[in-house]
Amino acid sequence: MSDQAKTLVAPVHIKDIQPYVPGKPIEDLVRELGLDPAKVVKLASNENPLGMSSAAKKAIEASLAGLERYPDPGGYHLKQAISKRFDVPADWITIGNGSNDILELAGMALLEPGYSAVYSQYAFVVYRLATQARGAQHIVVPASEFGHDLDGMLEAIAPNTRLVFIANPNNPTGTFLSNAAVTRFLESVEQRHGTSVTVVLDEAYNEYLPASDRVDSIALVKRFANLVVSRSFSKAYGLAGLRVGYGITQPVLTQLMARVRQPFNVNTLAQAAATAALFDDVFLAKSAAVNDAGKQQLQSALDQMGLTYVPSFANFVLVKFDDAPGVNQALLKRGVIVRPVPSDGLPDWLRVSIGLEHENARFIEALKAILAERTELA
Ligand SMILES: Cc1ncc(COP(=O)(O)O)c(C=O)c1O
């Protein structure tokens, strides 16, 4: 950095942001290690190994013709589809450039210096970023068995708290909160704080849960005016590259978030693909089934290897190692990309996304070889 750049004036809370570290792209690894791209397996960003549904692909092809025009700023068709699918009014819906955008919009609408956000230790890293970007205070509540301690979070809410973030399931730990636990938490927040504290329930991995386990978040959003439910098309719907997600909340909060939203925040292809994907139940069911089988495959291999992991409710597994950075480097050399998570406060762990059977097998085989080498050297 040049001396001039170092002296640029910017708010301290912006200068202090620790940037988000994404999963390593396949291209970067290929460039760095000269590997054959066809032999690289990426299990690092919780993407859908099946790709996207053919209905979404067809919708993208059909909308290629109109790309010289701006996207629909109101997301009419996508909001109608979400409204129909979940039985919520269209004016309760905010569409986002990924659900990351919904989290940021909640931060932008509600946080400012002098106020705080509550979130859990090991919770999704964007809660920290969205809070820090507003110059707001962080109240980080110690995790309970790698998951959210909702009682602790309730007690941690301060007079200056405006926002609580909950990830369910959580990334990177894969932990899950039941409908009863989330409902109880919302009731208590309402009793103690009325609508002065908004709760964001981030359900990016919701579609991977068996229907019977899911939080009834649509019923909850109808009951609690201070709840934002955030969902993603990046995971089970397989549209991560298009960047599209949505938030559902009652109109007052929806309108607040609309004030800080970029007018054209969701592109045309993303809107079309998401609208089509939303009703492709066959693809969604297949995504969940492939994930369940892959989870079983990975977790039983980890059991066999005697490794510690956090049982997952999502499309990844968090695994503990004596030397996570060393194992990560050894995996990269063998063409397997997983995700170190030191910036989540978990330097001894690696997060492994669940892939197709042969991809999971590549990871298992590479890991077995690496651990065997290390035992020999020890
Ligand atoms: C818990 C959680 N929430 C939200 C997101 C954001 O996803 P996207 O912006 O792709 O919808 C992610 C992505 O990994 C996540 O893990």
Short overview:
It contains 15 helices and 13 strands. The chain has helices at residues 3-6, 12-15, 26-33, 54-63, 76-86, 99-110, 126-133, 150-156, 179-193, 217-223, 251-260, 268-277, 281-304, 324-333, 357-377; strands at residues 41-42, 93-96, 116-120, 137-141, 161-167, 198-202, 227-232, 245-248, 309-310, 316-320, 336-337, 339-341, 346-353.
Describe this structure in words.
There is one protein chain. By secondary structure, the chain is of the alpha/beta class. The chain has two domains: 145 residues, Aspartate Aminotransferase, domain 1; 215 residues, Aspartate Aminotransferase, domain 2, CATH 3.40.640.10. Helix content is 43%, strand content 15%. The strands form three sheets. It has a seven-stranded mixed sheet, with helices on both faces. A hairpin with a 5-residue loop joins strand 9 and strand 10. The model has no long low-confidence stretch (mean pLDDT 95). Pyridoxal-5'-phosphate binds next to helix 6.
